[in-house]
From TrEMBL:
GO MF, one example: uroporphyrinogen-III synthase activity
InterPro entries in the cross-refs: 4pyrrol_syn_uPrphyn_synt_sf, 4pyrrol_synth_uPrphyn_synth
Biological process, per Gene Ontology: tetrapyrrole biosynthetic process
Taxonomy, superkingdom: Bacteria
Source organism of the structure: Moraxella equi
Domain Tetrapyrrole biosynthesis uroporphyrinogen III synthase positions: 22-184
Pfam families the UniProt entry points to: HEM4
Protein name as catalogued: Uroporphyrinogen-III synthase
Coiled coil: none
Length: 292
């Protein structure tokens, strides 16, 4: 039994020290916006002036982009904000919390409230549950990100504004990268997606089980776009990517349920976060029950 991990995170997040061999197949790419729409820029100005009671931040990318715009407004540290002492700041995950803390914010995470690091965990936080009609909330995110969170708050009468600092998109090279992963091409990836330390792309059929990381519904959709056509054409039988050989590591129970519904012949394991330790533990737990 020679397991393989397909790391589907964007390129700048792909470095991981895992207990099994891995290859990189980014399902999503990040594109930052150089400018904001006028209405979104006004939301940021209102934030600087203390209009919002609560700030919710969904990613490290959102922090980096927002900090750049804040510095253009003369805010070089969180303590420069007039409402710094009363502002509630919530981060989806620990890396996001760390990035916010580096700028000087005091940050809450779902983990601090004993909740999983996911959409479900964030909605279960007391700080989110206490938000009610008339409260003003600003969300820093990417285009379309965390809609469940904002939609839930809006239904409760919370005044929600969201600034999208970046967008996620499916890389144009995803199909060709997937072809290389299967070994249908002997060409090396021009941008080094597959490097000499990950020299397993032409031997994927020799691996079992094959772990696939699914961190969002958009990444699941991207995976479906390249993998499902292989199932329908039966080419997975040639390459070893049979559904029963694939184990999905999915972020949160909702995404796990979606993945399990779409791939009923594969196994899907929910994870509370994307930390290396969490991934390694999930891999070891799955391996312990995998038929030898």
């Amino acid at each position: 039994m020679t397991p393989l991990f397909i790391n589907t995170r964007p390129k700048h997040k792909a470095d991981m020290n895992l207990v099994i061999h891995s290859v990189s197949l980014p399902l999503l790419a990040i594109r930052h916006f150089d400018e904001l729409e006028q209405s979104k820029m006004q939301d940021l100005v209102d934030f600087v002036h203390g209009k919002f009671d609560t700030l919710i931040v969904v990613s490290v990318e959102a922090v980096a982009c927002a900090v750049r715009f804040l510095k253009e407004q003369g805010i070089d540290h969180a303590c420069d904000l007039p409402h710094h002492d009363t502002l509630t700041v919530i981060a989806v995950g620990q890396p996001t919390a760390d990035a916010l803390a580096e700028f000087g914010f005091s940050v809450l995470t779902p983990f601090d409230a004993g909740c999983p690091m996911s959409n479900e965990g964030m909605l279960a936080m007391p700080a989110i549950g206490e938000l009610h009609t008339g409260d003003d909330v600003l969300i820093w995110r990417g285009v379309g990100g965390r809609r469940l969170l904002s939609d839930t708050l809006i239904k409760r009468g919370v005044n929600v504004r969201a600034i999208a600092f970046y967008e996620r998109c499916v890389p144009s090279e995803l199909t060709s990268d997937f072809t290389r992963l299967l070994g249908d091409s002997t060409d090396d990836s021009p941008d080094g997606t597959f490097n000499s330390n990950q020299n397993h792309q032409h031997q994927i059929g020799k691996h079992s089980p094959i772990f696939v990381l699914i961190s969002s519904q958009m990444s699941l959709n991207a995976w479906q776009s390249v993998y499902d056509q292989q199932i329908h054409s039966h080419r997975t039988h040639t390459h070893g990517l049979l559904p029963q050989n694939v184990i999905y590591l999915t972020l949160g129970h909702r995404l796990t349920a979606l993945t399990a519904t779409h791939y009923p012949h594969s196994r899907a394991y929910p994870m509370v976060d994307l930390a290396e330790s969490t991934l390694n533990q999930a891999i070891q737990d799955a391996m312990a029950t995998y038929p030898s």
